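anyone seen this seq b4? input:
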Amino acid sequence: MRTHLGVVLSLSGCLAAACLVGCASNPFRTATPPPPLSLEPPPGVAAPAHTLPPSASLAMPPSYADVDGRQLEAALVRSREESQLMQDEIAALRDQLSATSSQLAQSRTVGMPPAFTTGGGAPGAAASTPTTTMQSAVAQLGLTDLEPRFDGAVVRIDIPADRLFDGDTANLLPGGVALLTQVSGELERVFPGHFVGIEGHLDTAPLPTGTWASAHQLTAARAAAVFDFLTTRTPMREGQLFLVAHGANHPLVSNATAAGRARNRRVELVVYPERTTSDDE
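predicted toks r here
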């Protein structure tokens, strides 16, 4: 009996010790559940792409099947209105271009005697000199450093503005006075009594602030200065001269270079085939 009691006490002690120590081999120990698996990446590591929420920028475009028919019709009407508006603007631009072209064509004849615009025969103009005679007479002009050229039915003499005027003014230089005196003498010798147009031209460089309102104003003033000199200091008469201010509208060459701009600043003396009547001579 004592032996059995001792065995029982010994077994109880062993069980108690096993419970206190927590031996892994203890058959009576309850298994601890594993910690939950986290999908959050550790700091500094990007999350896998398949775990990210779908981006709004990658969303599929809306289907037109889901759009109300009235919305589509309204969008179509707006598109037609915008197209019509663009066509109207294009038509308006074409009209403006046509009007500008007409004004430019008219500006070429402003100030010309009636004989030039009516085809001849008008009072104040005698018979025209034949074209062949005009062309052959160009070679007879003895002009220093100037190159007269035959242009259609007229003779053009380009005089650089830098040789005539003081800077950006309409004041004639002493050298310009001498040059105009020489040119007028040759015109009276080779083309006596012919109509001569005084055309002022300019380049596209900005004008000095506060001096001239526009390029046309400056070229008009320069043409007037040449007109006043020719009619008061030379045998040429007012009845055979007329003035045209072109501004920067008719360059000879490109204005992209300094040399080109200097060449475009000029006064052209244009000799026409028509002559004044004998009453004016």
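The first helix runs from residue 2 to 21. The longest strand covers residues 266-275. kinda curious what u guys think
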